[in-house]
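ok trying this again, last paste got cut off
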Amino acid sequence: MTASNATAERNAASIAANVFSIAKIMLWINSGCNARCKSCDIWREKPGHSLTASQIRGWLPEWQELGLKTVVVCGEPLLHPKLWEIVAAIRDGGITVELLTNGFLLDRHATQVTQYIKELRVSLDGPEEIHNLMRGRRNAFEKLQDGIQAVRAIEPGFRIDGRCHIHHQNFRLMRETIKDAKRIGLSGLSFSGTDFSNAEAFRRADTINDEYSRLFNISGDALVELQQVLETLVEKHSDDFRSRFLTDSPEKLKHLILDYYRDLNGGARRHIKCNSPWTSAVIEYDGTVRPCFPMPAYGKIGDMGTLKQTLNSQCACESRVALDVTTNETCRRCVDQTLNLFSK
């Protein structure tokens, strides 16, 4: 090997290993949840652990140095007693804030949402009966509708998008889900598969087993039925695709749902394209840092230094160098492959 080739290999490894910029941070700001979702065990955690506005202000200079563009506030952020102080601090740092919520408390925070949030996304698990069942609350759909209406009363044109994870309990009801999404006033709706096997995600290390997987997995004859459901949806909802109420194209929808379940059940592997571990990070309420939700943690801010030091620790760099998203089993089972394209 020539000296120039050796240098090129070392430079390539350095680029693969180190994180120099961050496009997005998923900021999980508090423990606990007010839902009882069947696909998530975060609600089993004791509430009361949370990040503070003081911590966020202390981190902001480094975030700005990393070129951070967007913070997505998640967990169930509307439970945080100082949410809007945190959001204001991030915005004052010139960073866009997006909010993910189940919507149960949205009516109480409608004014602040319209003032501070760039993008609001809510969870919708299906038409009303299924949504209530999967959320573990008999009035979950009603509370979500009340919250959306409260936002609309303040700013009628405010964009509120819904995300529905498709699985064995709701895939036959996708068209009914679209109907109810319009009924409650969503601006748009996207679909994805359901992660029922990555134990690092959603605090499910002690939950995932064969029975749990059967609750969500779409396999066997149901896969044929799923294909028919999607074909009918594409045919009957062409106007919703054209208007972008359905925010994914028919081709992407097939990839996100049908190809996902085929892959998990031994069919052709999907083509996976994701750079999240190199361009984004998850920060949890105790300072834990992950490359993304399904991946094991690198460590904690404080224990391993700053965010930048944690992202560039030996274990983090070794993880990224070894990671091939096209073959990694965690990536293969992830429902949210993303490509964070941004310019410096």
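PB: full thing came through this time. DSSP finds 15 helices and nine strands in the chain.
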